[in-house]
Write a structure and sequence with these properties.
By secondary structure, the protein is of the alpha+beta class. It has 3 domains: 2-98, Peroxidase, domain 1, CATH 1.10.520; 101-159, no CATH class; 163-195, no CATH class. It has 9 helices and 4 strands. It has helices at 2-16, 19-35, 37-44, 50-61, 67-78, 85-99, 115-129, 160-177, 183-195, and strands spanning 102-109, 132-139, 147-151, 154-157. Strands 2-1-3-4 form a 4-stranded mixed sheet. The longest helix is centred in the C-terminal third of the chain and has 18 residues, at 160-177. The protein is elongated and about 90 Å long. It starts with a helix and ends with a helix. The model has no long low-confidence stretch (mean pLDDT 88).
Length: 196
């Protein structure tokens, strides 16, 4: 169902030449709902009569989003599909990116990326892939340093956390495979070091 709604919105926006506008509008609506969960709860509340909800959100979004996006929100309300709006948005975004040859890469770092670093990584990945890359950054202080990158089938984990785990594993394996020296060998080694 989310695919049908998201796909229908995409088809209408493409036909009307408003894909970029609808993409911006959907992004705004999703961010508002994420940043203000009470607004989202009201939008998804089935106990609120659809007409009242459309009037409320019509006045709220009137100057923020395009009339086409507002009509879409009303169709979703009229059909009692409000809780699927985020899934509809993901489907629209998938089709939008496919249409514009855009791919997403995800990077997780221990510290925030600067805008310059973000652009550099996006440009490098775009150049290597021949497609426009949108980089989604996530912060995870537990990585301690370095980064984890996911891009299509590519997965690169160059985090300090992983390197430390690999070092620990290597040390454990080395300590288990080291031949156990006899007491006599250790005593002779000790005597040789004392005579020096």
């Amino acid at each position: 169902m989310a695919r049908r709604y998201g796909g229908s919105l995409f088809a209408v926006a493409k036909r009307e030449g408003t894909l970029d506008e609808i993409d911006r509008d959907f992004d705004l609506v999703v961010h508002l709902f994420k940043d203000y969960p009470r607004i989202r709860r009201v939008y998804e509340d089935k106990k609120i009569y659809a007409g009242k909800k459309m009037k409320l959100f019509g006045s709220f979004f009137r100057d923020l989003i395009s009339p086409a996006m507002l009509r879409f929100l009303f169709v979703v309300i009229e059909n009692y599909r409000e809780e699927y709006l985020f899934d509809m948005g993901r489907e629209f975004l998938r089709l939008y990116r496919q249409e514009h040859n855009i791919v997403e890469a995800r990077i997780t770092t221990a510290v925030s990326l600067t805008e310059e670093n973000r652009r550099f990584i996006e440009n490098e990945l775009s150049e290597k892939s021949g497609r426009q890359v949108v980089l989604r950054a996530k912060l995870d202080p537990e990585l301690l340093g370095g980064a984890v990158l996911r891009f299509g089938d590519l997965y690169v984990d160059d985090s300090l956390k992983t390197r430390l785990k690999e070092l620990e594993t290597g040390l454990l394996i080395a300590s288990r495979t080291r031949p156990d020296r006899s007491r006599k060998d250790r005593k002779e080694e000790h005597n040789v070091s004392e005579t020096r």
